[in-house]
Write a structure and sequence with these properties.
10% strand, SGNH_hydro_sf, binds 2-acetamido-2-deoxy-beta-D-glucopyranose, six-stranded parallel β-sheet, 10 strands, single chain, SGNH_plant_lipase-like, 14 helices, alpha/beta, lipid degradation, Rossmann fold
């Protein structure tokens, strides 16, 4: 019922707020600022009004903050996909293990879907921890186990996707098994933080199987399953859980190559807006119900857009001159970043300076891109303490 009401209101708003602008031109002043458009639109006020009772996601109240005083996370547990994977996906099936992935850090391919560090690495650094060991390499982790563990697998979602890797349910099963095996104690968990990323592979899989029609009805199913997973993670005993809002899928190079990387696909971003609205509401509800736990949304939608709009200027320099264009690109639509012929000849190009590109490949930011997003998220990250 609740979801249906929201859907109705959202669709009403979508038509009125988004469709006049259609494709959003990155070069115009209006550019990517869908938010600005929304804020100035009376229908959004209506939406917010109707949902006011559910709102209040802004982080801990004074009371909660007081209770959390002195909370210093000692471990990070990570669930999700390629936006947080640091080496779980098998070498045989992922480009992340091929040259030129990893050229900036650690200098060779190491299972990260980027030229270097990914969001997990920046969050770990923020918490004063080493990046947690990938689950697949846990037997070789040694002392590194004390920083937590990364269960994220590139290409996965809350449901099964086209990637033959563990979905989020299974990732949480792995985590529970380790607790059962006493690798981590309840005490450990009480001083731990979880990061949960969901970058849209469920939607990619849906499109591959069913096409775009009916996608909007699939969105509540994805969010509901994500909420089930979030509750499970909380149930295991984690006190702080950071979950990412979906990034603007319509701005990923896989969508913008149709316009030579000039314009975001407004239709896709609108669907992302709906996903994020449902997530926002569900998380607000969880926070209200919970007495000693706080879910924090890391808004990749806003942070990606603010970096893409400003081209990184907020960071002190205009670095990302052509922010929608990826650094590493297949030579034709048959090839991807990292593709080689049987005789070894390269079928991709890499830009001179990955540090000047926001996107690395068709889906993933560069290390410099992630750094910019991380900086844009600073004020939210403060809610993790
Ligand atoms: C996740 O994967 C497991 C194992 O393949 C499967 O049994 C389960 O149904 C999947 N969960 C979801 C929510 O798709
Ligand atoms: C696709 O369509 C089939 C049949 O209409 C349906 O059973 C399935 O749930 C849909 N979604 C996905 C993700 O395949
Ligand atoms: C935008 O995305 C929608 C949904 O994926 C697709 O049908 C449409 O063709 C795209 N538009 C452009 C101009 O790429
Ligand atoms: C590799 O093979 C392709 C065709 O498959 C050919 O065009 C290319 O010249 C070959 N390169 C080398 C270095 O032999």
């Amino acid at each position: 019922m609740e979801t249906q009401k929201q859907l109705l209101v959202f669709i009403l708003c979508s038509y009125l707020c988004f469709f006049p602008s259609g494709l959003i031109d990155i070069k115009t002043k209006r550019s990517l600022q869908v938010q600005y458009y929304l804020v100035t639109n009376p229908y959004l006020i209506l939406v917010l009004f109707l949902m006011a009772e559910n709102y209040g996601v802004e982080g801990p109240t004074h009371n909660e903050r007081h209770k959390l005083y002195g909370f210093r996370p000692t471990k990070l547990f990570v669930f999700g996909d390629s936006y947080s994977d640091t080496g779980n996906v098998r070498k045989a099936i992922a480009n992340s293990w091929k040259v030129p992935y990893g050229i900036t850090f650690p200098g060779k391919p190491a299972g990260r879907f980027s030229d270097g560090r990914v969001f997990t690495d920046y969050l770990a650094r923020y918490l004063g921890l080493k990046s947690p060991t990938p689950y697949r390499w846990r037997r070789y982790a040694g002392k590194r186990l004390r920083y937590g563990m990364n269960f994220a697998y590139g290409g996965t979602g809350v449901f099964d996707t086209t990637a033959p890797e563990p979905n989020m349910t299974t990732q949480i099963d792995f985590f529970q098994q380790l607790i059962h095996d006493k690798v981590y104690t309840q005490e450990d968990l009480a001083s731990s933080i979880a990061l949960v990323t969901l970058a849209g592979n469920d939607y990619g899989a849906f499109k591959a199987r069913n096409g775009s029609a009916g996608l909007i009805n699939f969105i509540p199913l994805v969010v509901n399953q994500l909420v089930v997973d979030l509750k499970r993670i909380r149930g295991v005993g984690l006190k702080k859980i950071a979950v990412t809002a979906l990034q603007p899928l319509g701005c990923l190079p896989q969508s913008t190559y149709m316009t030579s990387f000039q314009r975001c696909n407004g239709t896709e971003n609108m669907l992302v807006g709906y996903h994020n609205l449902l997530l926002q509401n569900a998380v607000a509800k969880l926070n209200t119900e919970a007495k000693d736990t706080s879910f924090v949304i890391l808004d990749l939608y806003d942070s990606f857009l603010s970096v893409l709009n400003d081209k990184g200027k907020i960071l002190g320099s205009a670095k990302f001159e052509n922010p929608l264009k990826p650094c590493c690109l297949g030579m034709s639509s048959d090839y991807r970043c990292g593709s080689i012929e049987e005789n070894g000849s390269k079928k991709y190009t890499v830009c001179d300076d990955p540090g000047s590109a926001f996107f690395w490949d068709m889906v993933h930011p560069t290390q410099e891109g992630w750094r910019a997003v991380y900086i844009a998220l600073q004020s939210t990250l403060e809610h993790l303490y």
